[in-house]
Design a protein that fits this description.
The protein contains five helices and 30 strands. The protein has 439 residues and is mainly beta. The strands form seven sheets. Strands 11, 14, 17, 19, 20, 22, 24 and 25 form an eight-stranded mixed sheet that branches. Strands 2, 4, 5, 6, 9, 10 and 13 form a seven-stranded mixed sheet that branches. It starts with 6 loop residues before the first helix and ends with a helix.
């Protein structure tokens, strides 16, 4: 019946019902008794609450007496409670009071449709009312049925991603790449973030492949996001760093190819006759994924190369979008050689200055800290260091008639038959010469 009448009419009827209920309850009261009318003692506070929470409105009165307090949802024109009774069929609504002074309206598990004005009314002759407003905020939610899901697109085509979000207040939507790379809108525009429910990618390339995040927020936690994976299909491509590779017999060699393909390609090696190469002791194949994952490094290792191993090899990449191959020629080469170390040694200039153009033998110059001395009479050989040469000189000067020769130490240009003076001079000069050379 209430639905066919205006709002004012419904309020009037409700006030009348409350009035007659109050009049009936006061039947038998003395007509000349003055009863003080009830009044509101405080205002109803406006409340903001997140959906799913519970809320409580408070309506404070005094001098209520036999009058009644009712709660209504003004926008819905719905009577919720009258005094201690719940009128609505909504199971989430309840009413309590504090000694008839404060009347509480309880709403549990608040929903977005609960928002609006709530009226507390006292059924006096002229109904007294006051209002409180319920703001219901709803965290953002992304509607999967109206949003894009994972997509596969051919390289060079255009693609539009859509993200629809609901909530109260209305959420804002922005886009980011999951790997934090720039978003390429077109050839002239790249951005870190893009705002709006749609993201249009023009002439998409393999560099645009990856996951895109649609992020919705409205200030009500939590912020939500949807991950949309964009796959870009293209036929295989090959890069060969060395198309001619040389290796000697009995050595091992590794051939290399780099491929890009999506979806992932079937990668293998063949000989020039088209025969596929399988894993054996002779051949070892290896495929390593790069970054991004559509890049693959192909390797073929050939062990213990024989004459029959020389020739042409092919690396092949094949996927549903196409097929490609590259050729590498293996030829024979000479084994590597290590250049010999230089053994040439110069005679120090200080020694040349002393001995003129004379030459030192390798045995002495190669080991200048020791001398091999031959004693003529006894025919024995022994080692003497530089500090013992003076002792040898003293011994030779005291033993007259004995001949002492020093093997390989008389340079050309010095006359060894010139007498005892030249021999003694040499014995003095040579230790000095070697000592200076060692410094």
């Amino acid at each position: 019946m209430f639905r066919r009448k205006s709002k004012c009419q419904r309020l009037f009827i409700f006030s009348s019902i409350l009035y007659f209920a109050q009049a009936a309850s006061s039947t038998g009261a003395t007509s000349n008794v003055v009863v003080e009318e009830p009044e509101f003692t405080d205002t109803i506070e406006n409340i903001t609450v997140a959906a799913g929470r519970s809320v409580k409105f408070a309506c404070s009165v005094k001098n209520l007496g036999t009058y009644k307090v009712a709660w209504m949802h003004f926008e819905q024109s719905a009577i919720l409670t009258v005094h201690n009774h719940v009128i609505t069929r909504n199971p989430r609504i309840s009413v309590t009071h504090d000694k008839h002074r404060t009347w509480f309206l309880h709403i549990s598990n608040v929903q977005e449709e609960d928002k609006g004005r709530y009226m507390c009314q006292i059924n006096t002759v002229t109904a007294k009312t006051q209002f409180g407003y319920l703001h219901v905020v709803v965290p953002p939610n992304i509607d999967d049925s109206l949003s894009s899901s994972d997509v596969i697109v051919r390289e060079g085509a255009n693609e539009t991603l859509t993200c629809k979000a609901t909530g109260s207040p209305q959420p804002s939507v922005k886009w980011k790449r999951d790997d934090n790379k720039q978003i390429t809108i077109n050839k002239t525009l790249t951005v870190a973030e893009w705002e709006g429910e749609t993201l249009e990618l023009t002439r998409i390339s393999r560099l645009d492949m990856g996951a895109y995040l649609c992020i919705a927020s409205n200030g009500v936690p939590p912020t939500v996001s949807k991950r949309i994976k964009v796959s870009v299909d293209f036929p295989p491509m090959l890069w060969i760093p060395h198309q001619l590779v040389g290796a000697p017999l009995a050595y091992s060699v590794t051939l290399e190819c780099f491929t890009e393909a999506h979806p992932s390609s079937l990668n293998y090696w063949t000989r020039e006759d088209g025969q596929m190469i399988h894993e054996t002791r002779k051949y070892h194949t290896e495929n390593t994924f790069g970054d991004p994952s559509y890049k693959i490094h192909m390797k073929l290792t050939i062990n213990n190369i024989q004459q029959s191993d020389y020739g042409t090899y092919k690396c092949v990449a094949k996927n549903p979008r196409g097929e490609t191959d590259g050729t590498i020629r293996l030829y024979t080469s000479s084994p590597p050689t290590t250049p010999p170390k230089s053994t040439t040694t110069e005679t120090p200039s200080r020694i040349r200055d002393i001995l003129g153009n004379g030459n030192l033998s390798n045995s002495i110059y190669g080991n200048p800290s020791s001398l091999t001395i031959h004693q003529g009479e006894k025919g024995s050989k022994y080692q003497s260091n530089l500090n013992e040469i003076d002792k040898s000189e003293q011994k030779s000067s005291s033993e007259e008639g004995k001949s002492i020769s020093y093997g390989h130490i008389v340079p050309s240009g010095i006359d060894s038959s010139s007498g005892n003076l030249n021999c003694k001079l040499l014995l003095w000069i040579f230790p000095i010469m070697l000592f200076n050379a060692l410094r």
